Amino acid sequence: MKNSIWLAFMFVAACGGGSPRPAPTPTPTPSDKECVAGGCSGTVCSDEEGVMTTCEWRAEYACYKEAECTRQPDGACGWTQTEMLTSCLASPPVE
């Protein structure tokens, strides 16, 4: 009987005596961040600020100026494939 009480005491002591522990502070997940357009030509849609790319220009890059950079159904940031964007990419403006 003494052994059972002693083991119960040790278990309670090892588990923190039953006192509640504070909940951990949640850290932001990528899905909590806003999506932003970036890169030198503005063609990268990401939840990271300041994404850098090489600086080159292609006619279709102009299509992304009015495009929607938003969180997609899979949770990643991306360009929403609207009719306006897909038609612009199919026939980019001539410079």
Structure write-up:
The protein has 95 residues and is α+β, with helices and mostly antiparallel strands. 22% of the residues lie in helices and 13% in strands. The chain has helices at 2-14, 83-90, and strands at 36-38, 44-46, 69-71, 77-79. The chain starts with a helix and ends in a 5-residue tail after the last helix.
Chain-wise SSE layout:
Blueprint: H1 2-14, E1 36-38, E2 44-46, E3 69-71, E4 77-79, H2 83-90
Antiparallel strand pairs: 1-2, 3-4
**What is the averaged pLDDT score?**
82
Strand content: 5-15%
Number of strands: 4
**Morphology:** elongated
How far the N terminus sits from the C terminus, by CA atoms, comes to 90 Å
Give the key terms.
95 residues, alpha+beta, two-stranded antiparallel ribbon, two-stranded antiparallel sheet, 13% strand, elongated
Q: In brief, what are we looking at here?
A:
With 95 residues, the chain is of the alpha+beta class.
